[in-house]
Amino acid sequence: MEPDPTADAGTASLEAALAHARSQAGTGAATQATVPATGATDLPADVAAGDVVWDERLGARGYATAVLRRGTILRIADQAGDTCVNLQLWNAALTSERYNPADTVKVQWQAYLGAGSLLLSDRGRVLATLVADTSGRHDALCGHTNRRGNEARYGHGAAHGPTPNARDLLALAVARQGLERRDLTAGLNLFTSVRVADDGALSLQAPTDAPSHVELRAELDLVVAVAVAPHPLDARPTYTAGPVRLTAWTAVRPEPDPFRTSSPERQRAFENSEQFLLAGSR
């Protein structure tokens, strides 16, 4: 066989390819996980590298998943001020229990989530607390994009195409945890501000172009899945979703916990979670 004149001389043979691959050790890419997570750098001032359990960077079309223990803090950072992080949560000990956006909104009497808000399950338990938020621009109403909608807007919507829809990306993410598409809910969209008009119409606000972040505290052991894909109301013709960083670390729960007693409804949700933990320990 004649040699391929277009082949890279550095990988034209098995030996050269092996040497090339090994030469990449210690290098990084713009979007990848930090392994081990304790090697993460550029952390919040009060976070020690030894406490980090997950650190990953995602770009548009990226997705990721992890299992986080109760008490873990997950920081999700919008690094450029123009992204949409599609988020889903499950109780890791009972994955039929999952984040419920309708209950999250109605139990707390608030459609616009921010610091102090709880992310509630379909069984009245708190899965996570939004303990910090520099964005204040989140959507618990609209759900995620699907293939049909993306094909209408961009001309393509499949998971492995140039403009994948969020639900397919999330399905790929949760498959790593033994979950399926039917386990997905409407979910939560972070860093996208949707407002409801007096007539019920929904409108997506323009991005701020200012970096921001949220921090979620796991109140039960959680399965977390995220996908970086445009919001379903994003009418721009280009597929736009900026870079995201996910960093999780072990933390000490404050006592007393101000979020627990911020309202009677929130206190009951915490009590429901603690009852579940108590029953499981017997």
Count of domains: 1
Strand order of the largest sheet: 1-14-3-12-7-6
List unreliable stretches of 5+ residues. Answer: none
Instruction: State the end-to-end distance.
Output: 69 Å
Give the radius of gyration: 21 Å
Q: Note the total helix count.
A: 5
Shape descriptor reads globular
Helix content: 10-25%
Architecture overview:
With about 280 residues, the chain is of the alpha+beta class. It is about 20% helix and about 25% strand. The chain has a 6-stranded antiparallel β-sheet with strand order 1-14-3-12-7-6. Strands 2, 4, 5, 8, 9 and 13 form a 6-stranded antiparallel β-sheet that branches. It has a two-stranded antiparallel sheet with strand order 10-11. Strand 10 and strand 11 (about 200-205) form a beta hairpin. The mean pLDDT is about 95.
Write the layout of secondary structure elements.
Elements: H1 14-23, E1 52-58, E2 63-68, E3 73-78, E4 85-91, E5 94-98, H2 101-107, E6 118-120, E7 126-133, E8 138-139, H3 147-154, H4 166-175, E9 188-190, E10 194-196, E11 202-204, E12 212-218, E13 222-228, E14 244-249, H5 264-280
